[in-house]
């Protein structure tokens, strides 16, 4: 692990240095403000609800917004791929990837995915009358010029153990990455203590960037058809959770805030696409523990097959809320 992490450090550091020195060229999309919402660790910082939050706020200010994403693990034949024009969805979750598909459902703006983010942004500019692009998870994608790099810091695991992949979860050298950011948002603050959040702030202040704080609170409990259910249903009940997340423990902590009597989890790999045998295992586990409810996430909901049919299964929706807003205007 140590040797692999060191090799990863050398590769990412050299690559970033070549971009910083202008040896590797950076492309700019003219007449469009590009705002990148990213992180320095692998997964789990809450980018999806954050992107949707900023999209909503920018639309309220009269901005014409599109979302561009890599479309991680999307199996598409065209690249870039139009996921949605803001009114109609043209791609499946399997083609687009789960996060872009969620953006298409919730954000109601054009959503484009592409491995080459410059081409995807240029596509958005060419085909839609936009003035702002939110780049979802593109902090390490140096080929594209952006106006702002908003870096999310997960309060429950802020700096990836201060070790690069695969030893830790850092995507690049911590100090260099934080120095390159425009501003920081400490996310999931409701899942950490005030002392822990203050410790993170203290560490980030050395970079002299704006620091905001956000929480990821429960907004709703819904059945699989989207019908709202009372959150108090969970109190005192036996609950089985299933998800394909980078950090399923945070999902569990969120459900614990609803005061169930007992919780068990069935965890899958991040971005997992569910199969019939997965649901057989979930159903068996629910029977063994005598679960009152089975709960999953909105991100996992879009990956469930249309014929999915497990009784007493619900979706927990999470809302991104700024509680200390120092975002650059």
UniProtKB/TrEMBL annotation:
<keyword id="KW-0808">Transferase</keyword>
<dbReference type="GO" id="GO:0005524">
    <property type="term" value="F:ATP binding"/>
</dbReference>
<comment type="similarity">
    <text>Belongs to the LpxK family.</text>
</comment>
<keyword id="KW-0441">Lipid A biosynthesis</keyword>
<feature type="binding site">
    <location>
        <begin position="41"/>
        <end position="48"/>
    </location>
    <ligand>
        <name>ATP</name>
    </ligand>
</feature>
<dbReference type="Pfam" id="PF02606">
    <property type="entry name" value="LpxK"/>
</dbReference>
<comment type="pathway">
    <text>Glycolipid biosynthesis; lipid IV(A) biosynthesis; lipid IV(A) from (3R)-3-hydroxytetradecanoyl-[acyl-carrier-protein] and UDP-N-acetyl-alpha-D-glucosamine: step 6/6.</text>
</comment>
<keyword id="KW-0444">Lipid biosynthesis</keyword>
<dbReference type="GO" id="GO:0009244">
    <property type="term" value="P:lipopolysaccharide core region biosynthetic process"/>
</dbReference>
<keyword id="KW-0067">ATP-binding</keyword>
<dbReference type="InterPro" id="IPR003758">
    <property type="entry name" value="LpxK"/>
</dbReference>
<protein>
    <recommendedName>
        <fullName>Tetraacyldisaccharide 4'-kinase</fullName>
        <ecNumber>2.7.1.130</ecNumber>
    </recommendedName>
</protein>
<keyword id="KW-0547">Nucleotide-binding</keyword>
<comment type="function">
    <text>Transfers the gamma-phosphate of ATP to the 4'-position of a tetraacyldisaccharide 1-phosphate intermediate (termed DS-1-P) to form tetraacyldisaccharide 1,4'-bis-phosphate (lipid IVA).</text>
</comment>
<dbReference type="InterPro" id="IPR027417">
    <property type="entry name" value="P-loop_NTPase"/>
</dbReference>
<keyword id="KW-0418">Kinase</keyword>
<dbReference type="GO" id="GO:0005886">
    <property type="term" value="C:plasma membrane"/>
</dbReference>
<dbReference type="GO" id="GO:0009245">
    <property type="term" value="P:lipid A biosynthetic process"/>
</dbReference>
<dbReference type="GO" id="GO:0009029">
    <property type="term" value="F:lipid-A 4'-kinase activity"/>
</dbReference>
<keyword id="KW-0443">Lipid metabolism</keyword>
């Amino acid at each position: 692990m140590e040797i692999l992490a060191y090799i990863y450090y050398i590769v990412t550091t050299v690559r970033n240095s070549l971009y910083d020195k202008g040896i590797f060229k950076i492309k700019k999309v003219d007449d469009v403000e590009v705002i990148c919402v990213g992180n320095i660790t692998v997964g789990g910082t809450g980018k999806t609800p954050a992107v949707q939050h900023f999209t909503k706020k920018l639309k309220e200010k009269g901005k014409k917004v599109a979302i561009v994403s890599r479309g991680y693990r999307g199996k598409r034949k065209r690249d870039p791929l139009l996921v949605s024009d803001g009114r109609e969805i043209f791609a499946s979750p399997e083609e687009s990837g789960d996060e872009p598909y969620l953006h298409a459902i919730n954000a109601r703006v054009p959503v484009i995915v592409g491995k080459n983010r410059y081409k995807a942004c240029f596509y958005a500019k060419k085909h839609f009358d936009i003035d702002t692009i939110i780049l979802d998870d593109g902090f390490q994608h140096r080929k594209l010029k952006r106006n702002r790099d908003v870096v999310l810091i997960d309060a429950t695991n802020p700096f990836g153990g201060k070790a690069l992949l695969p030893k830790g979860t850092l995507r690049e050298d911590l100090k260099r990455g934080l120095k390159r950011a425009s501003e920081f948002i400490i996310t999931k603050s409701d899942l950490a203590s005030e002392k822990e959040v203050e410790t993170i702030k203290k560490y980030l202040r050395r970079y002299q960037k704006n620091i905001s704080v956000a929480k990821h609170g429960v907004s709703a409990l819904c059945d699989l058809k989207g019908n709202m259910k009372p959150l108090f249903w969970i109190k005192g009940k036996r609950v089985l959770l299933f998800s394909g997340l980078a950090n399923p423990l945070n999902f569990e902590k969120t459900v614990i805030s609803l005061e169930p009597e007992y919780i068990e989890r069935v965890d899958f790999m991040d971005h997992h696409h569910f199969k019939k045998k997965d649901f057989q295992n979930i159903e068996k586990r629910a029977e063994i523990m005598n679960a009152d409810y089975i709960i999953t996430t909105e991100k996992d909901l879009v990956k469930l097959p249309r014929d999915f049919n497990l009784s007493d299964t619900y979706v927990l929706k999470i809302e991104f809320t700024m509680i200390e807003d120092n975002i650059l205007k």
